[in-house]
Write a structure and sequence with these properties.
Layout lengths: L1 H8 L3 H11 L7 H7 L4 E5 L2 E4 L4 E4 L2 H4 L8 H13 L12 H13 L4 E7 L2 H18 L7 E5 L8 H6 L3 H4 L9 E4 L4 H5 L4 H19 L4 E6 L15 H12 L2 E5 L13 H5 L5 E4 L11 E6 H8 L14 H16 L2 H21 L4 E7 L2 E6 L15 H11 L2 E2 L1 E3 L2 E4 L7 H25 L3
Parallel strand pairs: 3-13, 5-6, 5-7, 7-8, 8-9
Antiparallel strand pairs: 1-2, 2-3, 4-10, 9-10, 11-12, 12-15, 14-15
Helix pairs in contact: 5-15, 6-15, 11-12, 16-18, 17-18
The protein binds 4'-deoxy-4'-aminopyridoxal-5'-phosphate.
4'-deoxy-4'-aminopyridoxal-5'-phosphate binds next to helix 7.
């Protein structure tokens, strides 16, 4: 803390902001707007809290970027990185070599993932994991003598990363508009978002309707051309969209019917967030491939990968070389930190804590949020939740998008020591899994306070 304080204080906030604007291109950022305002400079963290360069304490209800599952300041992860850096900071896994940390992590991942998974391909990020998926499923089908099976189907408003294939799989129209995406043979169906597409139907009926959009698309394209379907168990970046309980089992049935590979993007949902180790277990699917990142190291160092089921790994193993890999596939330091992180999740019994204790408690406390006059719907799945802001609670009528009510609410959160993200007018949280009940209370009280402030401002503006 002393070091962090002295480092942060070596320049004023304004100086940090000026250097930031001068040299640092941020992800997904309007730099002209950022330069006018100046970035918020985060200087240190402990548990579920961050501190900025002005000394403000902030409750991080987003776990960094959906990743700091075990919270900040876990000394065991620091020690694992330090030890590994001293012993062997890097060696690659090409050319028939391997390293103990990568082997140990591969073994541990096979243990904590569902039984069909016995192998892992390491990447550095979720995006690279999904790029790997695209190449791997096409290579799988080509190896089986069906090279025409090249199409991957995903969902509008899904998020699968920012690389060419990741952003193509994703269904974010703003991303497709830049850089010539999607790449060929990627098709999208509508998302299982009851609030937007399903009102008038029961949630359960809508779940089946939305799953059947997949079957319609498969039949439209020709089942013999479809390689895989990919989705997030719960859409995260799209706005924490929790599908109806009927959706995923029906998706599984449809994939089985046509022999199509099912890919679960567990980059957000993995490592306990939904109350099971992986979101597919919560949703009741049996994926053939599973992308992970973020929570595998609690974000302390970058690491991602693809879990590969026996169905796929058997074919890969008997068809020569898969011409794919990264310098840092199986990076020893990242793997050592991931192993320490997974062992910590096991020792703390964190998945059961989420499923039996803190997840249900959060859901219960969010009922107070759902009662707020500005809130049309609250959805949660263990430690991820969405709060939909509406103009008219009784009619579930939304604000005009150009009013940017979500951003207005987010500004109140920022100003009051709470990090909550806005996706349109959907306020979202995904707090660290290590939260106590008292901390859930603190977070919910902050949310309610910020909703009150937002409502007051909207009233003053005459928008409600
Ligand atoms: N898939 C999902 C579901 C994600 O949420 C993300 C990142 N938010 C990614 C993939 C991409 O991961 P990364 O940013 O590590 O490339």
């Amino acid at each position: 803390a002393a070091y962090a304080a002295s480092r942060a204080q070596s320049r004023s906030t304004r100086q940090w902001q000026q250097a930031d604007s001068a040299h640092f291109l941020h992800p997904f950022t309007d730099h002209a707007a950022l330069a006018r305002k100046g970035a918020r400079i985060i200087t240190r963290a402990e548990g579920i809290y961050l501190w900025d360069s002005e000394g403000h304490k902030i409750l991080d209800a987003m776990s960094g970027l959906w990743c700091v599952n075990t919270g900040y300041g876990q000394q065991g992860l620091v020690d694992a990185a330090t030890r590994q850096m001293q012993e062997l900071p890097f060696y690659n896994a090409f050319f028939q070599t391997s390293t103990p940390p990568a082997i140990e992590l591969a073994e541990l991942l096979a243990e904590v993932t569902p039984p069909q998974f016995d192998k892992v391909f390491f990447t550095c990020s979720g995006s690279e994991g999904n790029d790997t998926v695209v190449r791997m499923v096409r290579h799988y089908w080509a190896s089986l003598g069906q090279p025409q099976r090249r199409i991957l189907i995903s969902r509008h408003n899904g998020y699968h990363g920012s690389t060419m294939a990741g952003a193509s799989l994703g269904g974010m129209s703003g991303m497709h508009a830049q850089g010539g995406l999607p790449i060929p043979d990627i098709h999208h169906i509508q998302q299982p978002h009851w609030f937007e597409h399903g009102q008038g139907q029961s949630r359960e009926d809508f779940g089946l309707t939305a799953a059947h959009w997949l079957e319609d698309k498969i039949l439209e394209l020709g089942p013999e051309r479809v390689a895989a379907f990919i989705g997030e168990p719960v859409q995260g970046a799209g706005g924490v969209i929790v599908p109806p309980s009927t959706y995923w089992p029906e998706i599984q049935r449809i994939c089985d019917k046509y022999g199509i590979l099912l890919v679960s993007d567990e980059v957000i949902c993995g490592f306990g967030r939904t109350g099971q180790w992986f979101g597919c277990e919560t949703m009741g699917t049996r994926p053939d491939l599973m992308t992970f990142a973020k929570g595998v190291t609690s974000g302390y160092v970058p690491l991602g990968g693809v879990m590969v089921s026996q169905r796929v790994s058997d074919v890969l193993a008997s068809h020569g070389e898969f011409n794919h890999g990264f310098t840092y596939s199986g990076h020893p330091v990242a793997c050592a930190v991931a192993t320490a992180n997974i062992r910590l999740i096991q020792q703390m019994n964190l998945v059961a804590h989420v499923r039996q204790n803190i997840g249900p408690y959060l859901a219960q406390r969010l009922q107070d949020v759902a009662a707020h006059p500005l809130v049309g719907e609250v959805q949660s799945c263990a430690m991820m939740a969405a709060v939909q802001l509406v103009q008219d609670k009784a009619k579930l009528q939304c604000f005009k998008p150009e009013l940017e009510v979500g951003m207005l609410c987010r500004a109140h959160c920022f100003g009051n020591g709470l990090i909550m993200r806005a996706v349109g007018d959907r306020m979202i949280i995904a707090p660290p899994l290590v939260m106590s009940r008292a901390q859930v209370d603190e977070m919910v009280n902050l949310i309610l306070h910020c909703l009150d402030l937002s409502l007051q401002e909207l009233q003053q503006k005459g928008w409600v």
